[in-house]
Design a protein that fits this description.
alpha/beta; Rossmann fold; globular
């Protein structure tokens, strides 16, 4: 995957370490822009018994709608479900590997979630904006293309890169 930043926040993925922690399971945080390949990456690397926490998937699950047709009326419910799952991850109450998929354009939000969940691996889907827009335009599951472009532009406008000191 050419766009995966394996150095992000000193948590580069080590395939030898993957799925092997002292407590028997691992937590992975995969973050980046909409249409950067977060879900695709997780689908490719997760195992069948792993759990995935993704706000989009939670909204789909509680609405039975497609990827981008869930509407915002169920967002508070989806956020509450995600918060409950985050609490379970934080207290290591989930007996399997967990993949957390999130946008996290703001440094403070990333740092807060990393501090809270203590993931074993953090992967940044470091994809240029133009590539994300092209992917969204080519994705048949993303019905409202103008909305997708606005969402991607908003993410990049809010994006705060990691300071170089995190890599030392």
């Amino acid at each position: 995957m050419q766009w995966v930043d394996r150095v992000s926040l000193k948590y580069g993925i080590d395939k030898k370490k993957l799925f092997k922690t002292a407590n028997g399971y691992s937590v992975y945080l995969v973050w980046g822009s909409p249409a950067s390949g977060k879900t695709t990456y997780v689908k490719k690397h997760r195992r069948d018994e792993d759990m995935v926490i993704d706000l989009d998937l939670i909204k789909q699950s509680i609405s039975m709608q497609g990827k981008t047709n869930t509407g915002e009326h169920l967002l508070p419910v989806a956020l509450s479900i995600r918060e409950h799952l985050y609490n379970m991850v934080e207290h290591r109450e989930i007996p399997c590997n967990v993949w957390v998929v999130a946008g996290l354009p703001r440094l403070a939000d990333r740092a807060r979630l990393i501090k809270r969940l203590k993931p074993d691996e953090v992967l940044f889907m470091n994809v240029p904006k133009e590539e994300c827009i092209q992917r969204a335009l080519n994705d048949n599951e993303r019905a409202d293309k103008e909305l997708q472009i606005r969402i991607i532009n908003k993410w990049f406008n809010e994006f705060e890169p990691d300071p170089p000191s995190l890599y030392l």
